[in-house]
Amino acid sequence: MDERTAKALLEYMQQFITDERKQLFEKVLEYRTRHITVVLEDIYQPHNASAVLRTCDLTGVQDVHIIENKNKYDVNPDVALGSFKWLNLIKYNETEDNTLGAFQKLKEQGYRIIATTPHKDEQTPQTIPLEGKMALVFGTELTGLSNTAIENADEYLKIPMYGFTESFNISVSAALILHILTERLRESDIRWQLSETEKTMIRLEWVKRTLRKAEIYEKAFLKTHRSE
Fold this sequence. Notes:
- By secondary structure, the protein is α/β, with parallel strands linked by helices.
- Helix content is 44%, strand content 14%.
- It has a six-stranded parallel β-sheet with strand order 3-2-1-5-4-6, sandwiched between helices.
- The longest helix has 17 residues, at 170-186.
- The radius of gyration is 19 Å and the shape is globular.
- It starts with a helix and ends with a helix.
């Protein structure tokens, strides 16, 4: 759908939601970003997978890229608390090993691939440069990131730790890293906000997800719009 049609459809469909909901959309959109995105490689624990979605929503990260190799990604709605409705979930599951394909598509979009791992002493959430779009890759609880992900990353990120345990679990890691990075980003001079075109497309998607039987409204509008 082109931007002009999307704007017209949005204006039409917004008639059917409350002013309070529209105001909430605008408030949240001001803090949404694609400068940072999250990549989840082969996550299989529904509780932790869903907690990461909740963290992305609360820190303003709009897109989550999900690599499904051996494991299918399942959302636990009791943990996600509806956050997945407001995020873009992009899945990679066409082959046996989808990691390289996902990385390639992200690089084509201008992202640096940043592997989160406790085994590389490179950068921390406090020191990593924010310039340039960042794709933060998280692995499974038990084995972490695959060798493919680690070997093909552009940079590495670790959380400083001072105890006996080797690492935080993925949901805690994502929360710590995203909170620090998004706070740093908003205090910077970097243009991290969404473009007006991106905001329009996300508004429209949110309105569709708010309305019951939104497809009926959309079909009625498009039928009239094409006949004009």
